[in-house]
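Z., the sequence and structure:
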Amino acid sequence: MLDGVTEALDHERCYRAVAGRDARFDGWFFTAVHTTGIYCRPSCPARTPLARNVSFFTTAAAAQGAGFRACRRCRPDAVPGSPEWDVRADVVARAMRLIADGEVERSGVPGLAARLGYSERQLHRLLVGELGVGPLALARAQRAQTARVLVETTELPMADVAFAAGFASIRQFNDTVREVFACTPTALRSTRRGADGGAPGWLTLRLAARAPYDAAEVLLFLGAHAVPGLEEWDGTTFSRVLDLPRGPAVVRLSPAPDGGAAVTARLRLSALRDLGAAVTRCRRLLDLDADPAAVDELLGADPALAPLVAAAPGRRVPASPDAAELAIRAVLGQQVSVAGARTLTARLLTAGPPLAEPVGSLTHAFPRPTALADADLSAVGLTGARRRTVHALAAALADGDIALDPGADREEAGRALLAVPGIGPWTAALVAMRGLADPDVWLPGDLALRRSLTALGSTDDEAATRWRPWRSYAVMHLWALAVPSLFTRPTPPISLPRSA
């Protein structure tokens, strides 16, 4: 969308976006105002500062590291994340995805560097060179955001908030909140905006997206694939179990009541410290950080896709909160219907971590690879070849031979998947698209795509080149053309009055 602005932030072009209060650029960069010492989102409604009095930063962490505080009016830390980290496949982008998932909180910078195959010094140099700050500062900014959410949306004691957000001490928590938000935690709680306490034990959050965003369509698509016991769909709310680092959690997702580009998430966590990871995985599940303007501009310029894009602007690619889960489900879904795949997957659930008590029809998280590698699958209803594929895939995931975490190298993951007997190009591509959230994936040999392409007078080869780097979004448009029931509710029949 910015055509290179985020690689070397172009002062003039960024300033034009700020002067126009263009919300499309929120999350792409942050505006730091020298005269006030605060940083804002580009669409901040405050008076536009003079061009000579501003600097621009790629991340909120970099602005904080330069000594700027978050604007309390526009709350720049609450904007959708930069879509750049999902689009790019380099080490910096992979690091950003892992940091957002809480890797630094769980295993520190050494663990983050090891996951990426770099030394701590090399990783620090790469991040500072591009973003202006290292991994600790990036993780600190995320802790501050998590703390703000807990302060504003719960009645938790501040000591519990500090621990849940990942701070080592109350003093560190207090100091960070003062530095980032220019107020004490108590003052921050007094300015809460529309917090909804909800039922006891549940946290209610608003997850923002870039407009346009059709939350109802995204949730319907997820609901159409819902696996009994793991997921639930009531026609409005999609619920599912998340397997988080400190225990299973339940999330209920529904369109924002004000009709805005957002989703309301209600979370029930085993441990509050998993909030950051839960939010990151929900955002990935719902594709909230996408840049619909850039996607629609390219796809809408193609005469074949233009009518589809115009009919569904901002269409998203729902992903999975866990790519390993998606990989297993993709194997189970080979050459069967959506309903058949749901049934087969449900039969695996007893091997997954159970909830302490059921929540509605939800009972288990999806089984981990270690549990499936040696599980007895004879009663699931799979062919012998399919059982062997599931076992081989689960064993490779459990042993680390295949890495599908948020920081995985996508090309390397694809090669490793194709080495598993029974996994072909279609399955590997689906894992890349809906497991690793790669925005530029084409599904070779997909029958639904073939039907849509034939109707549009196109071919696989043409699509593979014309729709880069947003082929995953083209897939969704073509699926919607071929299988509209996965995207829209059927229109009820109209009862005409009988003539006398």
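Residues 189 and 231 are 33 Å apart (CA to CA). The two ends are 61 Å apart (CA to CA).

Let me know what you think.
H.
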